[in-house]
Amino acid sequence: MATQAHSLSYAGCNFLRQRLVLSTLSGRPVKIRKIRARDDNPGLRDFEASFIRLLDKITNGSRIEINQTGTTLYYQPGLLYGGSVEHDCSVLRSIGYYLESLLCLAPFMKHPLRIVLRGVTNDQVDPSVDVLRATALPLLKQFGIDGESFELKIVRRGMPPGGGGEVFFSCPVRKVLKPIQLTDPGKIKRIRGMAYSVRVSPQMANRIVDSARSILNKFIPDIYIYTDHMKGVNSGKSPGFGLSLVAETTNGTFLSAELASNPQGQGTAVLPEDLGRNCARLLLEEIYRGGCVDSTNQSLALLLMTLGQQDVSKVLLGPLSPYTIEFLRHLKSFFQIMFKIETRPCGEELKGGDKVLMTCVGIGFSNLSKTLK
Amino acid sequence: KAVGEGGKRALLQNNGLSDGLNLEKSLTMKKATLTTSDSGHCTAEEAFVSEDESEESSSLTTEEEDSENEEVTRKKFPKSAQVVSGQKLGSENLTDEISDVEDLLKEEEDYKEENNYSMETSGALKWKEDLSRKAAEAFLRQQQATPNLRKLIYGTVTEDNE
After folding, report:
1. What are phi and psi of A277, to 5 degrees?
2. Average pLDDT over residues B14-37
């Protein structure tokens, strides 16, 4: 960026993605020191290096400096360029790890982003592509990011450790974002789910569905869990199965939960019945937490509120996740935005856990990269 | 003959009516409106009964003399009157019972309502005491009970700024 803002300095490997994403959006260079400096295997991991390469692909004119051991990173962001990109993600983390950051950056590209990501689509750590498609996309639509070209498609499914999945993501660009007023989550209207199985018996998915329904049927009749059994080249390189559940409320809020089987050769075998039941319980926990935004997407919502027009945005969240709390601190240091945070204890109106009402005025971020047509 | 009989019948009926009225009056002095309406009903029935009977008797004793006919009707009439009065008595008792129950119910309802009213008023009065003070206390309690998330997230520096 032309304006040479003074760089921010951090220490440690935590929240690397947050720092790099916010640096890219704000145009402020960032210097991160002591990345696993005391570790036996110091420096950046493969998946972090892959993430930095991805940032390099979607931006133009970024300067990235990494020292010999990989313990210090200097990142001077360029312009978000977008366009058609392909990227092979590290199999150590799932595509969700990369996609979460792309969802933050994609609306502010010069050219609409069309990206093919290859790697692991579902793992036990990161939000899976299924969940992001079911929860993050409707959230972006609330901010006015919508259109025919807005899609996230799973072409191939890949489970750890082998990977071999493929995802296509395309996102239109917007000059400005709409402010949001999400203060009433509404009531749970329906539950949808996706039970997937690759390179195992297709019956696994049916067993997951039966056990998940055994818990959820007590609460709501409108439940449909799709089974997805991909075969041949579309099934990736490793066997596995899992379930993602999404509860939709009457006001268009999506709350999600997911579980995946242990990767081949790691840990004990998981029974599909146990997995289905536990995932259903996780969904109930998520519904108890409640709020207008799923706990995996809290930080995405807060970021888009910050970058909105100079207007008041309000969102009711469930209990803030540690990741979101750190994200709020980062938002303050990169954008000088502090949220008004009001706790709403559960009462007659709000059920479940304590809620937090987040209010902020957008900084009026407009997409400078976008060409006017 | 027929005309004479009819006239006599009318007379008899009148007698019966007056008798019934008298009986009723003696029995039920308290509830005037109800009983009078009742009596009217009963007399109509009575009239019907007497007519039927008289007709029957006349049809049976068409060739008999008027006096005999009269006697028969006179004999019959007291019976019917008695029967009717008996019915009246029964109905009278029934109505009495019902009205008593109704009175009881009414009394109970009145009592309850009064009770509720008094309780409500006392509760409202208690509730309305020191509203502003209670609100202030609730506010302070709320402030102390809920953690200051802003302070927790952004640190103490921001607290000084505020």
Report:
1. -65, -45
2. 46
ipTM here: 0.73
Interchain contact, B154 vs A340, CB within 8 Å: no
Residue B67: pLDDT band (50, 70, 90) is very low
Is the distance from CB of A261 to CB of A300 less than 8 angstroms? no
Side by side, which strands form the sheet with A151-156?
Answer: A82-88, A111-119, A165-171, A151-156
Instruction: Give me the residues of A, 48-87, that contact B with CB < 8 A.
Output: none
Q: Kindly tell me if the per-residue pLDDT of B57 is higher than 70.
A: no
What gap in Å lies between CA A164 and CA A168, rounded to an integer? 14
Interchain proximity A338–B154, CB inside 8 Å: yes
Q: pLDDT by residue (tens digit) across B80-128?
A: 444 444 454 555 555 565 566 556 555 555 555 545 555 555 666 777 7
Contacts with A129 (C-beta within 8 Å, 6 or more apart), sequence order: A94, A95, A96, A99, A121, A122, A152, A154, A165, A167
Q: Scan for tokens 């939960």, then name that residue.
A: A257
Q: Please judge whether B153 and A341 are an interchain contact, meaning their C-beta atoms are less than 8 angstroms apart.
A: yes
Tokens of A77: 């962001």
Residue A25 token pair: 């959006």
pLDDT at B79: 47
Residue B147 touches chain A, beta carbons under 8 Å:
yes
Please tell me which residue of chain B has the smallest CA distance to A327.
B153
B153–A329 C-beta distance less than 8 A: yes
Chain A nearest-CA residue for B152: A325
Domains of chain A, start order? 1-78 (3.30.110), 188-289 (3.30.360.20)
* Sheet arrangement for strand A30-33: A8-11, A30-33, A73-76, A63-66
